[in-house]
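Support reply, case 0932

Customer input (verbatim):
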Amino acid sequence: MKLVIVFLTIMLMNGPWAHGDVDHSKTNLPTMTLQSAVPPLKNVNEIYSKINASFLKKVRPIFKKSCFDCHSNQTTFPWYYNVPGIKQLIDSDIKEAKTHLDFSKGFPFTSHVSPIKDLKGILRSLSEEEMPPQRYLWFHGEKKLTNNESKKIKNWIIKSLEALE
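Our regenerated output:
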């Protein structure tokens, strides 16, 4: 019970925003994929396919470990998920996270910005160590990215951006 009270206090103090106190719940942002966000290129599908193949091989296993609980349709809920109040907070956080980025379908990710902006945003979040959020790591320390994992993701992003830009 004490853990639940501590968890609720942390959640209420920090709000449902996992990144820079931005609350998108009050806006109605469209969800789009890469096809609608990037100017047409004659070989864009080939580029996406290569980036996705690299994502699936090198990055997806890392994202599955550290990101999928909030940014995919493959959430592993904690034992305290069904506690009233906590369930609603977790559901809200997942909904918010998936509004920004949903890794469920691979690259290009489902999001409200272009894939180039997605990649740059992930790179910024990694550089500033914003993801996974600290309050999530308090209860799921094993989800923290190692330096090697972070480096692999950054290298993949840099190569992907080079291919797209």
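We compared this against your earlier run and they match. Two observations from our side: The chain has a mean pLDDT of 81. The radius of gyration is 17 Å. Please reopen the case if you see a mismatch on your end.
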